[in-house]
């Protein structure tokens, strides 16, 4: 297991993009699976009625969760706040921000009775919120270290299955287009054999919304054992994949009845991937520009004779 880690955590190690704007509800959702059972009951009370909890006493919250005031305090520490008073202040501020965005009606789950206009509005809002909340809590320092590692790497392996496989493939194609050696694996056996031949200086990235997908965790573990720099991209920083990662990048995707992990996580993951890719491209700006131009021209003959602005391309002669 890697001896040193960098991660976006509830305590703010490394620091999110803007700690003052980071929602306590985002942190609670991301840390929920790793909390003790009694603390999870407190979390449910807070997540179900954050605005109400902002005005309740610690005794009232403890009673609602069927636990003790000590457990509520322990829950506060677990999510990175000093105590219940700070949690109330954070919840009140978050409620005010939500009200300012007028997102209460759109923030709910999609129901079977919603018409298509409501579905479109809720999906668009949920996607925009996933991007916004992911950006708010993303640790720029950790992202910078990952960018540096990928920019220097002789080879990059990316592991992901299910919906995460599409995100892994997106990163592979982006890096490949700027001349970086990158492979994306969704087959477990191939991922394991590929990880087994990595070496120090290489980078392995595991993408898993839950952080508990064995098909992704195991190749990342093998890569770590081979001395490669390992990176986890997950919604839950205290999940198994974090244990085998040198660096942990977190998303902030919410799951609902109709928006399972396959839908809710993809937009947030792609946001982080885009930031990573641009950071790497900046490190190799001249070669990246040349490579992008070359790859664009390479497929030019497979485009119809219409430019992106709708005007027809000039007829080429001599071909």
From TrEMBL:
Any one Gene Ontology MF annotation carried by this entry is: DNA-binding transcription factor activity
Stretches assigned to the SIS domain: 146-286
The processes (GO biological process) annotated in the record are: carbohydrate derivative metabolic process
Q: Does the keyword DNA-binding apply?
A: yes
Q: Which Pfam families match?
A: HTH_6, SIS
Residue ranges of every copy of the HTH rpiR-type domain listed in the record: 22-98
Region spans: Disordered: 1-24
Q: Which of UniProt's keywords are assigned here? A: DNA-binding, Transcription, Transcription regulation
Q: Which Gene3D superfamilies match?
A: Glucose-6-phosphate isomerase like protein, domain 1, Winged helix-like DNA-binding domain superfamily/Winged helix DNA-binding domain
Coiled-coil residues are none
Recorded hits in CDD domains, A to Z, give:
SIS_RpiR
Question: What InterPro entries has UniProt attached to this entry?
Answer: Homeodomain-like_sf, HTH_RpiR, RpiR-like, RpiR-like_SIS, SIS_dom, SIS_dom_sf, WH-like_DNA-bd_sf
Give the PANTHER family listed for this entry: GLUCOKINASE, HTH-TYPE TRANSCRIPTIONAL REGULATOR HEXR-RELATED
What protein does this entry describe? RpiR family transcriptional regulator
What organism is recorded for this protein? Gandjariella thermophila
């Amino acid at each position: 297991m890697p001896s040193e880690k960098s991660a976006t955590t509830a305590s703010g190690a490394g620091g999110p993009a803007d700690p003052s704007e980071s929602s306590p509800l985002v942190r609670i959702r991301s840390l929920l699976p790793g909390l003790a059972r009694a603390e999870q009951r407190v979390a449910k009370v807070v997540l179900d009625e954050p605005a109400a909890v902002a005005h309740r006493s610690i005794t009232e919250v403890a009673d609602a969760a069927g636990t003790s005031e000590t457990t509520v305090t322990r829950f506060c520490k677990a999510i990175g706040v000093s105590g219940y008073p700070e949690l109330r202040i954070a919840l009140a501020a978050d409620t005010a921000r939500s009200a300012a965005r007028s997102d209460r009606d759109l923030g709910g789950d999609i129901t079977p009775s919603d018409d298509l206009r409501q579905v479109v509005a809720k999906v668009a809002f949920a996607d925009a919120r996933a991007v916004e909340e992911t950006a708010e809590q993303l640790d720029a320092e950790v992202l910078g270290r990952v960018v540096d590692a990928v920019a220097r790497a002789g080879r990059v392996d990316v592991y992901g299955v299910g919906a995460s496989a599409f995100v892994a493939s997106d990163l592979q194609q982006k890096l490949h287009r700027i001349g970086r050696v990158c492979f994306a694996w969704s087959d477990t056996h191939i991922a394991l054999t590929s990880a087994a031949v990595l070496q120090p200086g290489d980078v392995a990235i595991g993408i898993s919304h839950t952080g508990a997908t064995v098909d992704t965790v195991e190749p990342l573990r093998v890569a770590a054992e081979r001395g490669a720099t390992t990176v986890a991209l997950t919604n839950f920083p205290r999940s198994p994949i974090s244990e085998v990662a040198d660096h942990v990048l977190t998303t902030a995707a919410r799951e609902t009845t109709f928006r399972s992990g396959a839908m809710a996580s993809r937009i947030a993951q792609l946001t982080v991937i885009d930031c990573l890719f641009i950071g790497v491209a900046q490190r190799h700006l001249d070669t990246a520009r040349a490579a992008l131009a070359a790859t664009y021209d390479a497929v030019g003959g497979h485009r119809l004779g219409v430019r992106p602005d709708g005007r027809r391309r000039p007829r080429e002669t001599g071909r």
